[in-house]
């Protein structure tokens, strides 16, 4: 009955205000003359339990969880920096000012992230490349090329290739990265 009232409240919202209930400030709505709390419940993801073939597979899964927990926040920060940089670049009057700003941003990012990147393992670095693609819908190569030009993008791609990685690697949540997507959704939601 309460679920019905909550749904109806959101459909027939007449007035909304915040009131305090037991010390918590929650949104309220009036439904058929009654004031009831209107609370947004978080999405809970339910997945089929995993079945591991052996102990090694189980350990790899828990390693993936640990790596996602370490790398996912970095990918979110990088995406935010990309958005802010792009928006600021749009306000600059000419190409010279844009290039000057990009050089400052590049130096700032190196100062901020070099120490953290050095602490990442090879697997975490490869995962970061994919998660940046997941967050921004562009590969790391495309991002470097857009902001710093094709020469630097080619240089960084060649450097990554020396270590067996690729900045052109795309995130595939329905295929190769299905398990990673599951872990990311659960980490985002605080389920693991």
From TrEMBL:
Pfam families: DUF4294. This is DUF4294 domain-containing protein.
